[in-house]
Amino acid sequence: MTSMLNTLERRGLVRRQPHPGDRRKLLIAITKKGTAIIDEMLPSLHQRERTIIGAALTKTEQRQLRTLLAKVQSSIARHADDEPDRSARRRRPH
Predict the structure, then answer these.
(1) Residue 29 CA: distances (Å) to CA of 11, 54, 59, 82
(2) Is the pLDDT of residue 94 over 90?
(3) What is the CA 16 to chain-centroid distance, rounded?
(4) Contact between 29 and 15 (Cβ < 8 Å)
(5) Does the structure show a pLDDT above 90 at 54?
């Protein structure tokens, strides 16, 4: 991650900012140059997503997917500040 951020920062696409409440953390802000690239790329990406999802799911299934993803997003927001569970272990398929 650090290497990726270094590259993005070197190219002027993001900038690191100190976290206001925790010296150990950094905030990453996208620059105007980075935003311009995203603005150019997103419309075609979103169209591709619509094409793929529309070909795979019925309208009803698409509504269900949006509902489920909204629930996941809500849970992410509620748990954003949770400390990581350091006792968790990787599960590998047999």
Answers:
(1) 13, 33, 36, 22
(2) no
(3) 17
(4) yes
(5) yes
* DSSP-assigned states of every residue in 7-26: HHHHTTSEEEEE-SS-TT-E
Q: What is the pLDDT of residue 69?
A: 97
As a whole number of angstroms, the distance between CA 75 and CA 79 comes to: 6
Distance in angstroms (rounded) separating the CA atoms of residues 18 and 29: 11
* Domains defined along the chain, listed by start: 2-78 (1.10.10.10)
Question: Which residues contact residue 65 at a Cβ distance below 8 angstroms, ignoring those fewer than 6 apart?
Answer: 53, 57
Question: What are the E-state strand segments in 2-94?
Answer: 14-18, 26-30
